[in-house]
## 1
Amino acid sequence: MSIYNPLPIVKGLWTTLKSVFEKPVTLQYPEDKRVMVTRFKGRHHLRRYDNGLEKCIGCALCASACPADAIFVEASENTDEKRFSPGERYASTYEINMMRCIYCGYCEDACPTQAIELGHDYELSFTDKRTSIYDREMLLDPVPDGKEPTPQAVEPGVFTRSIPDMKDPQ
Amino acid sequence: MNETTGMILEWALKSAVVTVICLTGFAYTTYYERRFLARIQVRIGPNRAGPWGLLQPVADGVKLIFKEELVPQYAYKVAFMIAPILTMAPAIIVMGVVPWGTEANFFGRTIELGISNDLNVGILYILSVTSIAVYGIVLAGWSSNNKYAMLGGLRSTAQMISYELALGLSFLPPIMLAESMSLADIVKGQQDFIWYVVPLLPTAILFFIAVLAEVNRAPFDMPEAEQELVAGYHTEYSGMKFALFFMGEYVKMFSMSAVFSTLFLGGFSGPWVDQVPWLGPLYLLLKIIFCLGIMIWVRATLPRFRYDRLMGFGWKIMLPFALINILLTALIISIFGL
């Protein structure tokens, strides 16, 4: 742009004047929130089957897939009296350090039962390091309506596979 | 109470009111600028403090008051203290000659709206007072004992002196049309004829550009070029002393807009101002807001000019154009016998 040629200046002024009448691209954040795209990777959720059992079988593949080493899983055995998941074992401890997590979604890819999924929740803030660790209870989805919470007592011989079928058990 | 005491009281009150208007004007010019700039940039702008963010300037002011005031160890203290005042004061003093209206009835007393409307050297007064502000800036730059501040001060001085020529010369055509240097007469001339922006459009544009350079606004904000000079002449200033520079710039915008409105946009004149004189200040304020809007709009659009181009523009374009402009105006006036 030359200072001696007023035409581009006038053109620029016209452009900025036009933009005054455009709708603002910014949002009033805490009141209005941006709608996330479907594949947005936010806070993790541990999913349940429709009958209330947890999908996670405590295999810790997510923990080994995690590049940031943010996931800690400890598995315990299921019994028919105290059944958490349809598989042989369940995650008795499941912790994600949200400050280490880079929200890459590798855990989601690694999960054999699609138990862990990255949701749309991005408003994570902590006042100290301890609260940044999300445990099992915080990550688990609520129990579906009318279904028993885990652990459930089930009939012996229904769940025999160590890795369950990847569909809702009947 | 005798007449003299009454007069003194009246003037004191009017000065106080004008000062308050200037300072409130400054505060809300910053708000106006931030909101309008935001709209140009397709944003919303500050709207949290108070309704529509109207208390934002108050919040800014409170923040600046509580800030620490640093004085550099090797600064020349006296000049360092005086500089902000010297920048700020002329900006308000200019408002002294700007007429806000004709005579009005104020609780049974006839007062003149404006401090000294009919000062017969009004224009000269404006020119001389605005040039004092250069001292504030150059003193600030020099006394800070900082190379960036020094460069900013020098640039600003050179720029203001160069553009003051064009500014002074573009004051002339309105004077020629009104045949008076008094701002009240210039407004009256426009009421009798037509707003001078119509016959003197090129002068108005020249004047406006010169004003932009004079108040160091973008695209002529060389003294503060952040990318090169940190913050220019006020690099070493903080707290209320910085606020005074900031205030000086915005009050100057405000008062130069008032001068522009008076010279070219008919000043306080507008419909029914003859019947209701109190409409005068309102009209002038509306025109000031319009001028400020243009300044903000230009700032939002244009990048800063390179320094040599800026000086070249001032001397090679503005000055000859201003001179030719005067010549043409004089010719037209003498041919048509206006």
## 2
Amino acid sequence: MKKISFQIGCCGRKMVIEAFPFASQDGEYMTCAETTLWNILSYYGARYPEYRVALPSSGLNYMMSSLILKKFGFGSKIYYRLIKNKTKESEFNFKRWFHYYVESGIPFMVGIKFDNKKIGHAVTCVGHGKIQVKLEDNKAIKIDGIKVFNSADFIDEYVYMDDNGVPFEINKFDEFKVPLYKKIYIDASEAEKIFLNILKDKYLGIDNLKKYGNKFVVRIFLSTSRNYKVGRFSGNTNEKMKNLYINLKMPKFIWVCEIGTVDAYKNKKMMGEIVLDTTASIGDFNELLLIRYPGKILVKLKKDNEQNLKSKLMKMYRKEVEKEFDMLETNLMEVDNV
Amino acid sequence: MYEYKEEDIVKEILGESSEIDESLSNVSDEEFSSSIKKTLNNLKEDLKKLEILRAEAMQEAMQDGFMVK
């Protein structure tokens, strides 16, 4: 669950509470669209001083709410569920992209369509429900006899701040708008494609994990480099690896893909990771920052070309790189009774 | 775009590689290069398909988009 500290005064005492902003609609000045935006902007306003809160009026469509987020300095990204041209793949994609942002700990605006109507309801997604590891073959990606499952498919319930209901309610989703930091140029759908193509690569990919099994789980999320370093530094690893991680030069936001066997994933451990620079242009692996597998690590420099990459790959063996490492869990916090 | 300053941070902190991947030394530069190019081309194709999917979704959103109240 995503929360933030608020200072409040109670009976003459200053107190700090951990919560997510919540407001009810009055149906006149504030509908769900405004309260959802208020929730999001209050959260970001409390966390980052450069975002301030404002109140627009009446109901909004997806374009209007996206423009408001842009006015507040976000690079707003809209995702709309295909209905007419819906395919099995488009449904899988839509659900996964949604999940990557939830896993990233980014509160965002979600539209829920009322059946057969031109009207819907807006809520803020702040987390997800219980993880149920289901190995569904039709959802797995097959790479050279290896099945790769997506952790996004293990979660069916998402948690919302709904101004028509109670806080932390569980519901569905039909469209969503993500307020992204304006310098994030690679979105969830593009990051996923980059990760999957790297995993399929003969030299950079999942072949490096082949000897550990044939069923793996990938977990994709966006992270601030600060959270990432905190997670890797506080994880159960050796001092040299900690030193390496904290000294990596990274942009403010990175995309991370963690890979592990199903058993490792169940134990909140991972065995490999690919890290991307969200501020890079896609192509020629410009966006690639780091690849790690058991006993191997590669930190890619912008200037590395194919020849350089080959010689780096040959020398990526390091005994300090453990077989498993702790799954990064600094984006969301676990709470009881959801 | 972010630029690294370090020449080789892995070498600097973890030291020299503990072993060399001999299997890669048998791979010619051309072979390696064509494999990387293949991956990059596949990615390009996937991104093109993604663009089409996005355009379709936006078209549907323009026609059937809903107001949230």
